[in-house]
Predict the 3D structure of the following.
Amino acid sequence: MKYINRALLITVVVMLVFTASGCGRDDSIMEDAALVYMESTPVVDYTVPELTPNILVDRVGYSTSEAKEAVLKGSRLSEEFRIVAAQTGEVVYSGIIEKASYSDDSGIYTGYADFYDLALEGEYYIESDYIGRSYSFVIKNGIYNEMFKELYSRLEADCEAGIAEIGDVMTMLLAYEFYGEIFEDEDGNEVPDVMELLEEWTQNINYSQIEAGYGARYAAFLAKFSYLYQKYDITYATECLQRASAVFTQTKDAVQNDADTFFALTELYRATGIYTYRTQILDYKTYFQNNSGFVEEAGYLYGAMTYMVTRQKVDLELCTLFMDSLMSHGEEIADRSEDMLHPINEKNNGAEEILDSAIELACANYVLDSYKYDCLMQDFCHYLMGRNRMSVCFYPEEGSRSSYFMLAAQLASQEMAE
């Protein structure tokens, strides 16, 4: 009876409370009660950390013909690594981890997995005891050419839509001049498609549409295009050269001696041989003698390249200065590349610096044709595509599309030659 009476009493009290408060009819009271209850519960604000693999690979992939390396890192390393076919789980390759080293600062070991001999196309991942597995990646024939074509198609679409910027079309023209063998002639008319595309762009654009401050670069583009296009259509090339001269005359009084003006002068001099342009180029000589880092500015770098290859009369001392600076800067980049690309303690200012360094190295390599530089440019690409501390693929979101285009063109040319 005691238990029955107690249960009955509890039931009656509960009914009276609900009746008095009206909770059965007022939803807002129920909401407030719920809020009070939740606030009385300890709140744990916990975010699951993003985990990154301890085996770093190029997430875009590797060319069948190139050297292939992954980086392994961890508090403990095995002596071996295995490459596994992603679809079947079959181990298709194994090797010894090389160049193992220890970082006192981070307390982490690093080593390298070299799988150059694996040239079979497919999708794979790398695994090793103690540290797990990598992201999946592909090995594919012509992977850099595929990347180049993808970037080219985007720039092509911008040109056809009339929204391509002067920097984009200049990059396409520079890539054609340096690596003409990778550009196609799909219609078979013996004029590379990129030159027909740029011809159309020059016909549809005028000086008033060029962004303020870029007049000298536009003049440089027209002069370079004229020089390269003359073997296909001398009449239109001459028209472009005349326009380049007129644009430069309009802009030269509004700007100081800067990189784009120098670039325009070198292109106009190569295309015309006019002594006035040569004299104005020599006005920069003192600047170059006192500033060895001028090659870090695109206009000076590309202008120097044009001056060194022109068939017009040149100042040999200035040519030697350009050559020495280019070689010296290339070696400087090569010397600090290990620190820039270190998988644990990298020292760089992000994707843009990596891309700029790769392009400067490509220019030095255009003159020197160095196998070491070929390998370094591949390493720059691998870093950008995922072989970095956080295993992040920067392409194509971080860094300019034009810079990626130049790097892809160089690597595609290199790939074709192998």
About this structure: Residues 1-49 have pLDDT under 50 and may be disordered.
